[in-house]
């Protein structure tokens, strides 16, 4: 029997720092909910809006796979590996923190907000050499189909991380249905709706709702309106 956990958008943790408005699906910083610490290897799903010209100063990470998906605007990244770059909507960025890395993230523009998802996944290898990558995706390739944006395999579509995880994005017209088959036995799937409304195995989800499903090998996703969403398949057991 499949298990599900539903996280409605308005039940997420919220931190308003003035320059930063952040919604936390899972416990993060000053938000702690013992029932929402992680979903398997998915540790953090933050929905962040950064004011014009503002950002996160240099800070450290280690032994975490960190994925950033910009939704609006331009985010400037700088790190201790010597990378200085900008990511924008259509890009996906990954950083394997491994033995340790320091980085900063700033809104590059002085006249508009930047919105992005910050996602942390527990790695299956500790103390790896830190690594950075970013790619630009063709968003047309997710129109009414699932576009793979992340996997464990450097030779596959999208970026890769040190974990048996697969991420897909979809931009579906109302009424379009697809099945998603899990890539690995024992994994779970976390669905996050970016825009519009979808149903997952007949469970209705609206914008910014999240749904975790495990103990199954396939789900059916239907766009009930024009919709955009992110699928994150991750191991339920953390090594």
TrEMBL record:
<feature type="binding site">
    <location>
        <position position="59"/>
    </location>
    <ligand>
        <name>Fe cation</name>
    </ligand>
</feature>
<dbReference type="InterPro" id="IPR041602">
    <property type="entry name" value="Quercetinase_C"/>
</dbReference>
<keyword id="KW-0408">Iron</keyword>
<feature type="binding site">
    <location>
        <position position="105"/>
    </location>
    <ligand>
        <name>Fe cation</name>
    </ligand>
</feature>
<feature type="domain" description="Quercetin 2,3-dioxygenase C-terminal cupin">
    <location>
        <begin position="149"/>
        <end position="234"/>
    </location>
</feature>
<keyword id="KW-0479">Metal-binding</keyword>
<dbReference type="Pfam" id="PF02678">
    <property type="entry name" value="Pirin"/>
</dbReference>
<dbReference type="InterPro" id="IPR003829">
    <property type="entry name" value="Pirin_N_dom"/>
</dbReference>
<feature type="binding site">
    <location>
        <position position="103"/>
    </location>
    <ligand>
        <name>Fe cation</name>
    </ligand>
</feature>
<dbReference type="InterPro" id="IPR012093">
    <property type="entry name" value="Pirin"/>
</dbReference>
<dbReference type="Pfam" id="PF17954">
    <property type="entry name" value="Pirin_C_2"/>
</dbReference>
<comment type="similarity">
    <text>Belongs to the pirin family.</text>
</comment>
<feature type="binding site">
    <location>
        <position position="61"/>
    </location>
    <ligand>
        <name>Fe cation</name>
    </ligand>
</feature>
<dbReference type="InterPro" id="IPR011051">
    <property type="entry name" value="RmlC_Cupin_sf"/>
</dbReference>
<protein>
    <submittedName>
        <fullName>Pirin family protein</fullName>
    </submittedName>
</protein>
<dbReference type="InterPro" id="IPR014710">
    <property type="entry name" value="RmlC-like_jellyroll"/>
</dbReference>
<feature type="domain" description="Pirin N-terminal">
    <location>
        <begin position="12"/>
        <end position="121"/>
    </location>
</feature>
<dbReference type="GO" id="GO:0046872">
    <property type="term" value="F:metal ion binding"/>
</dbReference>
């Amino acid at each position: 029997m499949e298990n599900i956990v539903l996280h409605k958008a308005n039940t997420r943790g919220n931190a308003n720092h003035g320059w930063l408005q952040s919604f936390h699906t899972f416990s993060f910083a000053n938000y702690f909910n013992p029932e929402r610490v992680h979903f398997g290897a998915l540790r953090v799903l933050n929905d962040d809006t950064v004011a014009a010209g503002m950002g996160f100063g240099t800070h450290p990470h280690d032994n975490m796979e960190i994925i950033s998906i910009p939704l609006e605007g331009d985010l400037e990244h700088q790190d201790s590996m010597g990378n200085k770059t900008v990511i924008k909507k259509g890009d996906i960025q990954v950083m394997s923190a491994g033995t340790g890395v320091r980085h900063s993230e700033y809104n590059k523009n002085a006249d508009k907000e930047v919105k992005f998802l910050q996602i942390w996944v527990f790695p299956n290898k500790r103390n790896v050499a830190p690594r950075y990558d970013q790619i630009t995706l063709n968003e047309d390739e997710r129109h009414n189909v699932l576009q793979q944006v992340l996997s464990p395999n450097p030779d596959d579509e999208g970026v890769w991380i040190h974990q048996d995880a697969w991420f897909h994005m979809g931009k579906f017209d109302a009424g379009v249905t697809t099945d998603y088959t899990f890539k690995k036995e024992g994994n779970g799937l976390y669905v996050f709706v970016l825009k519009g409304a979808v149903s997952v195995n007949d469970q209705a989800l609206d914008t910014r709702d999240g749904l975790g499903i495990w103990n199954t090998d396939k789900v059916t996703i239907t766009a009930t309106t024009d919709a955009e969403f992110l699928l994150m398949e991750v191991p339920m057991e953390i090594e």
